[in-house]
Write a structure and sequence with these properties.
There is one protein chain. This protein has six helices and six strands. By secondary structure, it is α/β, with parallel strands linked by helices. It has a four-stranded mixed beta sheet. Strands 2-3 form a two-stranded parallel ribbon. Helix 3 runs antiparallel to helix 4. It is globular.
Length: 132
């Protein structure tokens, strides 16, 4: 069984009006994947700034997400690992933090629309774009 991590875009698609993407995102989230503090923060920011949710709705959504997933912390070591991933693979800093957190959580799959589909990181983590 694979251990899964989701990037922010998967969480946001669970709120989408695009039915196919919403269904796929919800099916991934139903498996109780790992998320990071970064994913929670980015989700709150997008919900407030782009999707015009009010604070109580954002708070409730995040509380539900935290109950239905496994939240993995970002530590100082994670930040240094992210820099190594950026250097080795050319990711942006924030994508590198997602990758480093997924590796730190022991995940074998990272669902993201933003990175190269089927790229393998450190022979341990496969990036999957579930919307391809």
């Amino acid at each position: 069984m694979s251990v899964e991590f989701v990037d922010t875009n998967i969480v946001i698609y669970s709120l989408s009006e695009e039915a196919a993407k919403r269904r796929k995102a919800l099916s991934i989230l139903a498996r109780k994947p790992f998320v990071s503090i970064q994913v929670l923060n980015e989700t709150a920011n997008i919900m407030r700034r782009k999707l015009a949710f009010d604070i109580p709705a954002i708070r409730q959504f995040l509380m539900d997400l935290m109950k239905e997933s496994r939240v993995h912390p970002i530590t100082p070591v994670t930040v240094l690992s992210a820099l190594a991933a950026a250097e080795r693979y050319g990711f942006s800093h924030y994508d590198s933090v997602i990758v480093a957190t997924a590796l730190d959580a022991g995940c074998s799959m990272l669902y993201s629309e933003d990175m190269q589909h089927e790229q393998i990181i450190d022979n341990r983590l496969t990036i999957i774009n579930p919307f391809r």
